[in-house]
Amino acid sequence: MSTDREAVVWSRIGAIPARMGRVYITDKDCRFTYDDQYLETGLPGLGVVYAPEHFGKTTITMARNERFDLLPPLQALIPPRHAENFQRNLALKYLASRGIKGLTGFDADWEILKVSGHGGIGHLDLFEDDDKARAWYNNVPPQELYSIPDELGFSLKEFITWFEDDIDVLIQTIGPTPSVGGAIPKLLLAIPASGWDGRIGLPTRQKSPGVTDVVLKFEQTTRYPGIIELEALAMDLHREAGFDVPRYWPCQFRDMPALAIERFDRTANNLPLMTESLFSIIASGAPLTDHFSYRYDFLARAIDTPNIEIVTDRQAGKAHVFQRLVMSLLTGNGDLHLDNLSIMQTDKVRRFTPVYDPAPMRAYAQHDMLSVMPFGDYGDIPPGGNTPVGLVEAIGRLAKNCGLDKPQRDNTLHRLLEVTRSFTERVNTLATVPDANKERLVGRVRSIRDQLSG
After folding, report:
1. Is 209 left (phi over 0), alpha (psi -120 to 50) or beta?
2. Domains of the chain by range and CATH?
3. Is the pTM of this model over 0.70?
4. What is the pLDDT of residues 288-346, one digit of tens each?
5. Which neighbouring-strand residues pair with 188?
């Protein structure tokens, strides 16, 4: 029996919704072809590697494999197959309410994609067919904000029907985010443009003065106690270090600690911007098995690839990679993987997005690692040597691979060490982080500081 499937990819990146092209999936491959009309617009396409200027009318073909059933930018629209993934579970509950049950693997992915593959992070909207696309774009619910009532439950049905009694696409309030893994529950919402005040609404689909879109992240207190306070502190420090950081508001959603982070993938008129994670970009050109199966040093090499413009200012991009890694070491975030680094495009300029997901995950035993991806041959024994490469040497090697000379490297280290000097004291003032987690985090960061300060 044939397993062929097809869908359409639309986008409203050009203000007026337009079909970008059509995607076909067989039992062996995934194919995508741009529409002629879309090619004439000059707008961004599926992603950095699969850009219209590289393929034109030529069909893009990728053999399906264990990690990717779809081209990586489209695969990113599907919540990953983890039993604890919040977005996926909500989608499966919605499908079950429609009588679609018992699906596994790609069969489940496909049904999820058809109902939740639009309205998420970035500029790509996937629909089952053109009629579904037009209906979604043309029937925009009123942009209203509601106070969160105490009795609001957190099931899919209660959450969505609270907005509308008779809504066809309940799943529209959930969308994929650049962060794969789903350890932290997230919802896409709208809040007042002035900031969090306890009122929320559906994510925007058109110009909506007075509101802004946010990703609302909830704390799983039993697994990650105090993570909202820790992430807010990390974002404070990144801003103080000169990184671009979105607005954010620690808050309470009923009795749950949460963090509302303003979405950077939208313009002031609520139009989407081309946004793609480095995992999607790299996986579009190299065989990756996961979002951490790469090296930071290779990122510098990828940025320098002459025929693919990952970032417009290549040297600034490589320096950003070095600075982000050093900052993650100094704030106890060993989880800076390819899905926590993304590229955005505005006015033909590609650059790294503002910082997101910088939480100091080393506070938690299950995530206590120096770095989720290798760098500078740290811990390896070089050919002809007897001792493993230490941290300082590895940092030096990475800096060199990122095109930084010794003065630039040392200036970066000195500046970031100074910015994070108060980290220990600030961690110890956090009210919701248990003492044992504080001690673990502070101890790990102090060791890093001692080595880099020398």
Report:
1. beta
2. 78-94+140-272 (no CATH), 274-453 (1.10.1070.20)
3. yes
4. 888 888 999 999 999 999 999 999 999 999 999 999 999 999 999 999 999 999 999 99
5. 215
